Task: structure prediction
Amino acid sequence: MSAEIVTEKNFVTVEEHILNQQSNHPTSTGSFSWLLSGITMAGRIISAKVRRAGILEILGEASDVNVHGEQQQKLDILSNKTIEQCLGYRGNVGIIASEELDEPKVIAGTSGKYVVIFDPLDGSSNIDVNVSVGTIFAIFERESGNFNGNDPASDVLQIGRRQLAAGYIVYGSSTVLTYTTGHGVHMFTLDPSVGAFVLAQENVMMPKSGKYFSVNEGNFNSFPKGIQEYLKWCKTEEAGPYSARYIGSLVADFHRTLLRGGIFLYPPTAKTPQGKLRLMYEANPIAFLAEQAGGLATDGSQNILDKAPCSLHERTPLFVGSESEIKRLRGYLDEWD
Ligand code: AHG
Ligand code: MN
Ligand code: MN
Result:
């Protein structure tokens, strides 16, 4: 009996996919795909570093704390530098902003029209225990007429709805890049044998409901009453009960929610009364992807993408997932809070 020949699906790389997307939208220029290829380059480099973390001397804590007073991990800094280098010389990136940089950085000598805001390594507390981590990015266009502005803040502090593109790379059992430019959500798996991100799934749609909730229940006692009542309902026979899944890396918890449905919650807590997650480089890009996939993302009172940012590192509560789960949660918040 002849051995079954495993043929690979039609081999579409992310660069090819982005160019195809460009051709469908004549207004966009090739420079956008050139920018996105800088991010995929950074993803390949970070993925290689994450996969050898135990071997290379890059585990553990760095000497500094970041602007949030959080202990930086060596891979936080390495990942940040990698993205800066891969984006810095694209010529069309004017400003970068990162969780690991106190202030936005104007890329000298360019009138680059794009702003890239990123979390270089999300879930970094999980690195040393070999749990999935990721990179999250959001891309805006600079405010017109501000190209030579000295104060980049007005270019950076844009409302989430103005994102041109957003995505993440999750360094898990495989390395998966997920992105949207506002025309659907598309997933690519890094094929280590060729070093290319290859199309795995186009136009990903989040299930309209899902019996999974994802939250750090260690903070339960300080959650708002409506959140507590919603979670209690999830555990009832009437509800199912739901299954609890929590990895502690936003990118990995969201990736599962995008594919399986359900809800991810990071509510206000006693320790983080504004929520822990950052609006500009965690909640906004995740919310853009969720909406493009038919899901919803809220801070409990308004849609994440409608929030007007006041500062680069501001925090927000985040509830993101299947449409029916978010609507049910809103009902509990209206009733109890
Ligand atoms: P980062 O490593 O970029 O600081 O992000 C960590 C975030 C996010 O990835 C995750 O959802 C959350 O921290 C987990 O927080 P808790 O450990 O408080 O549950
Ligand atoms: Mn993060
Ligand atoms: Mn981070």
User: Anything to note?
Assistant: The longest helix spans residues 30-51. The pocket of manganese (II) ion (ligand 3) is lined by residues 76, 99, 119, 121-122, 124 (CB under 6 Å).
